[in-house]
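Input.
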Amino acid sequence: VESIKPQLRQSENVRGISILDFDDTLATTKSNVLFTAPDGTKGKLNAEEYARDYVELAAQGYVFDFSEFNKVVKGKPLLNKAKKLAEKFGTKDMFILTARPPAAQEAIYEFLKNQGLNIPIDNITGLGNSTSEAKALWIADKVAEGYNDFYFADDALQNVQAVQNMLNQFDVKSKIQQAKVRFSENIDIEFNNILENVTGIESKKRFSAIKARKRGESKG
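Output.
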């Protein structure tokens, strides 16, 4: 059965675009999302926790403060793929699409520039919106502008799925990638979280060598 979607003819112009998330895709960062719970309790979430829990917490009435995300805090680049794309195609059609607020644009621009990736500042969009639908709709607008060959990378699975589902409705070529931080970069945190689940000792708790030896005497 032939596809009902018309296929791009080879004679048609291919117009490529790269769209990259920032946090945990191009860079890992120490920025936190601050929150106020419905009962007035204040706290903070890291980028991973926020991406995972945003929908549920927002539905419960949590109010979020993104003031830390207006700057890049202790960023660590994951830029090899982006740099290769820039070397091959330039940066005119390379875009950063982030849930951070619009005020983060300049900080992201300066951070990437210092890492050797000079993307036009107007190509950096802070949506101020963490929903997957917001990213999918923004990319749909790029289809309307005439782009027909998409590369999209994001660390959040829900964003990857939403963009893929949306692009599947159009006659465009696409490569969608879920970016993942190397496990070795998080192994200390992950291992401590596993130990917390097994032993009940808080992941963030720290012992001196003497106290740890004492606690472990009976463990073999």
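The longest strand covers residues 149-154.
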